[in-house]
Write a structure and sequence with these properties.
10 strands, globular, binds copper (II) ion
Amino acid sequence: MNFLKFLITAGYVSLLVPMAFAMESYGGSSMEASMQSSLSTADKKAIVSAMSAAPMSVSAKATIVAMDANGKMRTLHKGQNNFTCMPDNPATPGPDPMCMDPAALAWAEAWIGHKKPVEGKVGFMYMLMGGTDASNVDPYATKPTANNHWLQTGPHVMIVGASQSFYDMYPKSAQPDTSVPYIMWSGTPYQHLMIPVK
Ligand SMILES: [Cu+2]
């Protein structure tokens, strides 16, 4: 099954136009060759979700991974660029798929695994799906509480793993203006710069 046909079958009609463009422009045939028709419906949905995090020019060539219930990464599609895309985490309220470079992937794995990320290993990440929401003070919160400063964040990109002096250039209040760049999870090992793009 080619990738475009896979999307039609999966019912993601709204994605067809940009996807067709991406396939044409960025070497769809190799993706077609490596795309397994044996993927489950859940895996196909995960791929579409993961790819929505970045511009098609990036995500059409990215490696797609999904996490199982135990937090173990599984590769659904091996890509040809240095980006890895992960689908929405259904445990959190908003859509939060992400596409990241290798340094940001290492950072995300540290965060997910409750380990300390390497400071100074600066990474870049796309989160272009709107409506993502999270606590701005608790990296592991899964729902709003009275005092965890739950934010509604729109489409954004992120800089992770930078040094304190970098983050010191930006606002870091618990309840920031999310329409301009600000620090999320300030003062924790997982602080990062949030850059709204809309
Ligand atoms: Cu983000």
